[in-house]
Amino acid sequence: MGINIHPYFLRGALLGLACSPSALFAQTEWMSCPVPAVVSAAVQRPPNLPAQAVYIEADAALFRGQGVSTMNGNVHISQANKQLQADEASYEQPAGIVSGSGNVSFSSDNMQVSSRTLHYNLLQNTGEMQDAEYRLNQASGQGFSKRVVQESPTLTRLETSSYSTCPVDKPDWSLNASTIDLDHQQERGTARHATLKIRNVPVLYLPYFSFPLTDARKSGFLWPILSTNERSGVQLSAPYYWNLAPNYDLTLTPTLLGRRGLQLGGEFRYLTPKNQGVAAYTLLPNDNASDKNNRFYFNVHNDTRINALSSLQLKAEGVSDDQYFVDLGNSLEATSVVNLERRLEYRTAGNNWSFSSLLQNYQVLDGGTAPHARLPQLLLRYNPPQKGNGLNVSAETEYTNFTGSKTETNGTRLDVMARASKKFATQAAYVKPSITVRHTEYALDDAHSTKISRSVPSASVDTGLFFEREIKDGRYIQTLEPRVFYTYTPYREQSAIPVFDSSARSLSYNQLFAENRFTGKDRIADANRLTASVSTRIQSPKDGRELFRASIGQMYHFDDRKVTLPDETPLQGDRSELILEAAGEINPRTRISTTAYWDSEEKTVNAGEVRVHYKDDKKRVLNVGYAERKQAFKSANLSFSAPINEHWKAVGSLERDVQNDRNLETVIGAEYESCCWKTRVASRNYLLPDNTTRDNAVFIELELKGLGNFGSSTRDLLENRVYGYE
């Protein structure tokens, strides 16, 4: 028979456990682990019953208004979102004590538990369960506890317990502790005498372990970081995370470098309604592998939003010595750093104008010439609304003080530019004439002529047609887009002008349509040239996907180019290289892109590049690339990610200098993934800046679902090296 009893309303939960021994919540996708069914939901609580009322059903029961009521057979007790089931149970009034035995199951919003016995005081929210198997809903973890004690409404103690996010019957890893205390009010748990086991083999002992019960940030030690390379030896870091406030934190990281000594690092992050940024500092007081001591690195980055239209940005990096990244870096990018920037920039804007002020200088690491410092650079842009006749006008004024160079000329530069253009267009054609006037004034500190001025006008006409047709019975649309661009800039003598920020642009397809072949403002190239090009595209009208794109273009010069950079000769020839670009899908899994520079006079390819990217539904990835410039370089790269079976994946990349027959960098790694843990191992061999010495680094990462990462960030390395890696 069924007996429904709800004699009064209770405050609090029947049994409110919400433990989660998770130190870090993983942000990556995981395979799904089997979820055991702990509690049956066969009994439905009446929908009109008040939430705090106690609802009871059983096959047989003896209920008393005062004293102990007993229930037998399929006992069900529920309150709000909590359910208790047992073979036998008793309920004592007015003390509010419930006891259960025989196949006891309990569920709540936070967890599900199966145990041998339960004894709980509903009024005081205290009690205990024996031999409990539990599952945490929020952290997707489960385990076993010899004894679960609810000491207060906000404090739970687990005695002789284990925790894992793996299946209960075969846990690949587990965290075992003598006691685990869960403070639900502080959302924090602490474990004492904890042992981490992999496949039931102890690998790490922690006398004290603190962790958050939710994904909220909590202070405490993070997992150690382990890596190794030949120049520094084994590197072991023990980061401590300090949650100072909801909007700022501090991470302190002592690192033991096997061959160098103890390194100390810190990172402070902050976020306010108007400010956000990070400040990091690393110090190696005594370097046992070098004659340099007090070696440091700092990085400061701050963004301040002054108001809706104004902002201030600070960025500064620096190191103690030129060899810092060579000795202490562990990648080709790190050892290839040649300068570090320091800049402070203010920006503001109005409806039709913008203004910026910049302070900038550099620390040079490769012994080369340092770029000039800009102290300051002031830039004002004006873009009024378009006129009713379609005329676009704009103006720009820049003042820069170039200083700090001990080998090059310092001075100031004032540059004023005005531009006007108008576009005449239909759906099938357009013509856009433009005219630009630029005037520049120089005041130099150390030169024979301290005052230099230059005024240069430029004119251009950009015109194009657009044709479209359906192919394959309308399944695809093909376009044909011829384009002609003409620009004229008269010659102005500029050899007396120093080069503060100008350099020659590398020729590319987009550069075919640029008015100036130099960057910066110190060189304005004379030009009398015409660019002719044509592009075609094949698109799917169903989803807009571009299946194929190809372009070909060339510049035709009507005069020799006289303006040059220092120590360069004027450019001659009546045409540029013929540039060809193409990209498209070979099939839905494979995409190829290529660029070629054809010398039509010599009938040779001066430069070229081809890249192939393959990725299928099985997450197999292959990237192949080759680039060449005649008498300059030949390079090739290969990267791949290939699942071997359900759990194992091989990953690797190779960057090779073909011209000099040497590898620049080689990375080879393997990844194992199950539903509750991952491990990645990678080895990297790379060339140091002296172009002779090589270094080796080994990265090991263990990622436990619900506990976080142990080791170095191997995933970041593989993602940077293998395009498409997941």
TrEMBL record:
Residues 56-187 form the Organic solvent tolerance-like N-terminal domain. Pfam families: LptD, LptD_N. Coiled coil: none annotated. Residues 293-648 form the LptD C-terminal domain. Keywords: Cell outer membrane, Membrane, Plasmid, Signal. GO terms for biological process: Gram-negative-bacterium-type cell outer membrane assembly; lipopolysaccharide transport. Residues 1-25 form the signal peptide. InterPro entries: LipoPS_assembly_LptD (IPR020889), LptD (IPR050218), LptD_C (IPR007543), OstA-like_N (IPR005653). The keyword Signal applies. It is found in: Cell outer membrane. GO terms for cellular component: cell outer membrane; transporter complex. Component of the lipopolysaccharide transport and assembly complex. Interacts with LptE and LptA. Together with LptE, is involved in the assembly of lipopolysaccharide (LPS) at the surface of the outer membrane. Belongs to the LptD family. PANTHER family: LPS-ASSEMBLY PROTEIN, LPS-ASSEMBLY PROTEIN LPTD. This is LPS-assembly protein LptD. It comes from Thiothrix fructosivorans. The gene is lptD.
